[in-house]
C-alpha cells in the first residue's frame, strides 16, 4: 500500500484500516470530524495527517495537541509502530474523544498514550518532547504559546502545523512576538492547505 506515494508495510496498512473501521463506528455517536468529510476519510483525514510524519519520519517523542478524532496523532503513532520506536502523547480534554483515542491506540498497537487534560495542563504531565503537531486547532500565535513551556526545556523543539489558506495572516501576526525558522510545505492532499514546519523558535516579547 502507498500513502501519499510512500509505501507502507502490510502490517501498517492493516492498522490504518482497523483505525478507519473504529473511526466509522465511533463517529456514529461522537462528533469526531465534520460529518460532510467522513465519506472522504482516507484522503481528507488519514492521508492528510500522514503528511506530517512523512515530512519528519524520525522515531522522536511527539506531542499532538487537540487530538480530537485522532488526526494527526493516532496516524503518527501507527506510523511510528512500523519503525518500532518513538512515542506520541495525545492531548485531548474531551473525555469521550479521549476514550476513542485510547481504544484506537490499543487496538491498532500504536505507539502512544492519551492525556485527557486541557492543553494548558499538558506541560506538567508531559515533561519533554521533540516535536509538536496540531491540526485545525487554533491560530499560530496561540499554538506557539502552548508550545512555549516545552521550548524552555528543548531549544531544538520542532513544530508541524496544518494550516489553511489564511496562514500568511497568522504568520504575520505571530512574528510580532516570535522569531523562528520556517519551511512551508504545500499539502499534497488539499490545494489550499500547507504544513508549517517551525524550528529555532525564540520569544521576542
From TrEMBL:
One of its GO terms (molecular function) is rRNA (guanine-N7-)-methyltransferase activity. It comes from the Bacteria. Belongs to the methyltransferase superfamily. RNA methyltransferase RsmG family. It is found in: Cytoplasm. The keyword Iron-sulfur does not apply. It catalyses: guanosine(527) in 16S rRNA + S-adenosyl-L-methionine = N(7)-methylguanosine(527) in 16S rRNA + S-adenosyl-L-homocysteine. Its EC number is 2.1.1.170. S-adenosyl-L-methionine binds at residues 66, 71, 119-120, 135. InterPro entries: rRNA_ssu_MeTfrase_G, SAM-dependent_MTases_sf. Gene3D superfamilies: Vaccinia Virus protein VP39. GO terms for cellular component: cytosol. PANTHER family: S-ADENOSYL-L-METHIONINE-DEPENDENT METHYLTRANSFERASES SUPERFAMILY PROTEIN. It holds the Pfam family GidB. This is Ribosomal RNA small subunit methyltransferase G.
